[in-house]
Amino acid sequence: MDLKIVFLASLTIWMITTLATARVCYECINAGSDEECMLDGTIKTCKDNQETCETVVRYKNRQIMITKLCKQKKACLNNLLQNPAVCNPKHPNAFCYCCCHDDMCNDNSDQCWLSEQPEIVPVEKPILLDTMPTQTKCGQMEDSSIEFPEMICTNGESPGSVCAINHAEKIPMEPPVRRRCVKQPDGMYLWQDVELAELESEGFVCPEIYEPTENSVVTCSDGNSLGSRCLFECDEGYVVDSGSPMLILTPGQSLSVCESSGEGGLILKWSGEAPICKPIMCDAPPMSEDDVISRWCSDGNRLGSSCVSMCPPGFGVTPTESSTVTCFDEDGDGVAQWDREFPRCEPLSCDPFTVPDAIVTCSENFEVNSTCEVTCRDDSHVLFPSTFDEVTCRVNQTWSSEPPCCRKPCPPHAPMDMVIAMDSSSSITSRSWFKMRAFVKRLVKYFFIGPESTNFAIFRYNNKPDEDSQIQLDNGNDQTSMESAIDRIPHDGKGTWTGLALHFAADVAFHPSNGQRNNTPDIMLVITDGQNHRFDDNVPDAVKKLQAMDVTVLVVAVEPEKLGATFKFDHLVNVAGGIERNVFLPVGGSLDVIDDIRRVVIEKVCDNICDLNL
């Protein structure tokens, strides 16, 4: 008879005999196909709270088992959420769930697969004849109390075979249900519950219960009895060694089941040996033979270990964001990696420098501990400071000294503006004036005149500065013409108003419009016998003005020739800005104090010549 006709007849009878308004679903357990489910299953009126028809397709050992039943809607939808993880035909124990919400909508199981259907080996079914021979085995076991059964039998469906039924999805686990295939008085074979003590007395046990291996714990559902499942869980930071002969559930969990050894069903064995839990580790930190870096790790290259990289003096960690690298498991899959690239050591260096008109030669390309020598290109230039030998790049990336500079010898090439004020009052005799003029010419001759050397301005004063005979800084004279210009300065007048002369120097002689350079030091030289006018009280104010302009005032004292006259030393010191060492007194009437002036020029000009922007 056609299968559909049989089914429609059954459906018609059912519709006539029931007036229920509840959901109606197909129900069968572990059928080999939809057709088998329709033949051997039932049409069931669901409970009031079961508004969904569910189909569960299980694929194991290339065979398919279909279970159809009523289900609460929420429970069915929760099962659907597992499909991405378990509904995979390539998985050795795949489950696929599907839900529908109409009467008898779970007729077709094909809709349950998320991807291509697996290759299925049809289950051989016995041929049902009107003259069936005597039953010789129990047949397939069914247990509606276990929703997703996982069965382990000692001898299949044969008489005497004992089967343990576990819930395939319950981990942590519950003890299995055990049944034995027993022949009944009427000659039929049925599955009957069997007590654990009876099985143990018959020797249906596995070897001793596993002891937990190092770095793990073990939990068994029912000791070492048939169907007992032992779950091994590695300690935190450990995973199951991939070479362990056991079913690995997660990176840190593995499962072993007490099952038949296949030797007539009388001997049981564990499905796998106790696993080895190995620490989760990152790759060893990289290290090359020529690497100068040193590393300290809190726990080697194990999970959670942090490694700090350190460089020896003269080297810096690169990249500089962080010298600490940590081993972590980002996805929780037992595969660890370092959270960033390991830094390396790179040589540190000082800022490169150049010296105008010079050749710079360094031993290690400006790196730490390299030394640099400097040589002037032109023999007419020398290094300043004169004590410079070489400069070294220190560990703190600074040079051991400031780089030198190449300049013409100083003195006599002293880049400065010097203003000379000559006292031409009546207390200065003609003989003293001659000495003064001769001294000034020797001084001008000692220092070279030029743009990179000295510019001179000279004027005489008595009761006022003489502007008509003054020589300005931008006079354009060379040594020879300067001597001639000095010879033309006259000697006459009365009064020694040194304060006025100092004001004149500040306001006129050192004015930029008259040739004062803003990139060179300024020195004023006052030559006087110190016999100042009693009303000349402008010296303190004038000195303050010059000091504010950073002008150094030197005083050369001319010995008074007037009978009974002496130096007014306090006055001379006031003119020098209160600095006694800048007052030069004649020896035996001589004005040969050029060496004293040279000392001041070296201190103020030559020792700082590299700072001048020439």
Helix fraction bin: 10-25%
The SS-based structural class is alpha+beta
- CATH architectural category of the largest domain: 3-Layer(aba) Sandwich
* Anisotropy-based shape: rod-shaped
Per the CATH scheme, the topology name of the largest domain is Rossmann fold
Number of domains: 5
Query: How many angstroms does the end-to-end distance come to?
Result: 119 Å
Describe this structure in words.
By secondary structure, the chain is α+β, with helices and mostly antiparallel strands. It folds into five domains: 22-112, Ribbon (CD59); 141-279, Complement Module, domain 1 (Ribbon); 294-347, Complement Module, domain 1, CATH 2.10.70; 358-407, Ribbon (Complement Module, domain 1); 416-611, 3-Layer(aba) Sandwich (Rossmann fold), CATH 3.40.50. Helices cover 17% and strands 28% of the residues. It contains eleven helices and 32 strands. A five-stranded antiparallel β-sheet has the order 2-1-4-3-5. Strands 10, 11, 13, 14 and 15 form a five-stranded antiparallel β-sheet that branches. Strands 29-28-30-31-32 form a five-stranded parallel β-sheet, sandwiched between helices. A hairpin with an 8-residue loop joins strand 6 (149-153) and strand 7. The longest helix is centred in the last third of the chain and has 17 residues, at 430-446.
